Backbone:
């Protein structure tokens, strides 16, 4: 009995396509994931930069509201983040104040839960977060993936953060 050579070749082509196609699809999904992740990194870098820049002239404009007003540091950060959701929580937006000198000295940290700045011993509203101090804004998000292989590798998502520090010039 004679086998048809064309059916053998088409079966071989089908097997080859299924092997190569799987890797090709994973490669394309990985490229798409990289693009989305890179865009989010750019957005949070811009958000942190704009929040710190606004904080340099409005160091005490803070809000613990879920949707903060546009005239607050958190509001500027969230407005800049357009298509990336940044929750107004301490784990997503961290604002700290430092005294400048021979070494940087942490003098206060904004706590979203209480809506107040927690001052380090020896510092108060009168001597922390004032002109010539430094404000440090850190924005952090966790992103997820659509590619199955990346989802397996990064089970809890990938954490992206950007931190910007500027001198307060009220």
Residues:
């Amino acid at each position: 009995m004679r086998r048809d050579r064309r059916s053998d070749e088409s079966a071989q082509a089908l097997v080859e396509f299924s092997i190569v196609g799987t890797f090709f699809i994973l490669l394309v999904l990985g490229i798409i994931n990289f693009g989305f992740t890179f865009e989010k990194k750019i957005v949070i870098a811009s958000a942190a930069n704009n929040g710190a820049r606004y904080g340099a002239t409005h160091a005490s404009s803070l809000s613990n509201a879920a949707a903060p007003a546009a005239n607050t540091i958190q509001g500027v950060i969230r407005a800049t983040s357009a298509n990336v959701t940044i929750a107004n929580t301490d784990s997503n937006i961290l604002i700290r104040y430092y005294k400048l000198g021979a070494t940087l000295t942490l003098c206060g940290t904004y706590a979203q839960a209480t809506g107040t700045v927690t001052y380090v011993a020896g510092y108060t509203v009168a001597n922390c977060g004032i002109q010539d101090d430094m404000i440090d804004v850190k924005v952090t998000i966790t992103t997820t993936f659509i590619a199955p292989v990346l989802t397996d590798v990064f089970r809890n998502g990938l954490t992206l953060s950007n931190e910007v520090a500027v001198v307060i010039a009220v």
